[in-house]
Amino acid sequence: MDDSLEEIVREIRSCRKCSLWITKKNYVPGEGSENAGIMFIGEAPGKEEDEQGRPFVGNAGKFLTALIEKSLGLRREDVYITNILKCRPPNNRDPDDEEIDACFPYLERQISVIKPEIIACLGRHSARTVFEHFGIPFTTISRERGLMREKIVDGKVIRFIATYHPAAALYKPPLKETIEEDFKKLRNFVKKKNPTLLDFFS
Asked: How far apart are CA 92 and CA 9, in angstroms?
């Protein structure tokens, strides 16, 4: 039987592979189109996400949604948004290696089902984890941001790009312009005549 996002979500919502299930309020599997051409991957759910069970719905999420709509000309439901971790770490602390190892297989399966053309990593933890998993060198987010990398995954070319986490712009306003610049690079890969992103290789 082929894997599906519904099956992955079902498994996530009963997951007890690490201790985060004890402290979380809601699992946050991810949301968006199963046919998304672009997949956004953050680090872990925050307080608002934990409350609602949805990714990127707080202030950082509002900024991300605005970037998707205004910079890319897409609707939020046209892309897929998720995190490395599907549960909120207490007090929004950084994920630990055990949690990442336990949760990453869900993300692998989501990528396999969606088969995105581009994976956009939001923040250094997401970028380091994803890049290293796919054998892409990673140094620091300041050096790697905005660079488009290509890897063949399951016989298909996927482009990887990293940028600062949208939350960073809330604490360091100058980073807002930097993130917007990176989204302009993403826009260059979106076919102007197909804003639904069903086929946007350019």
From this structure: 22
Q: Which is nearest to 175 in space by CA: 184, 165, 185?
A: 165
Residue range 42-100, pLDDT digits in tens: 999 999 999 999 999 999 999 999 999 999 999 999 999 999 999 999 999 999 999 99
Hey, where are the domains in the chain? 5-134+151-187
- pLDDT band of 201, cuts 50, 70, 90: very low
What pLDDT score does 191 carry? Answer: 56
155: left (phi over 0), alpha (psi -120 to 50) or beta: left
The third-level CATH classification (topology) of the domain covering 5-134+151-187 is Uracil-DNA Glycosylase, subunit E (3.40.470)
Return the closest-CA partner of residue 186 out of 42, 58, 45, 70.
70
Residue identified by tokens 């807002």 is: 176
pTM of the predicted structure, to 2 decimals? 0.92
The secondary element (H helix, E strand) that includes residue 99 is helix 97-114
**Nearest alpha carbon to residue 168 among 122, 109, 104, 121:** 122
**SS3 call for 73:** coil
Q: Report the DSSP pairing between strands 149-153 and 156-163.
A: antiparallel
Count of other CB atoms within 10 angstroms of residue 194: 13
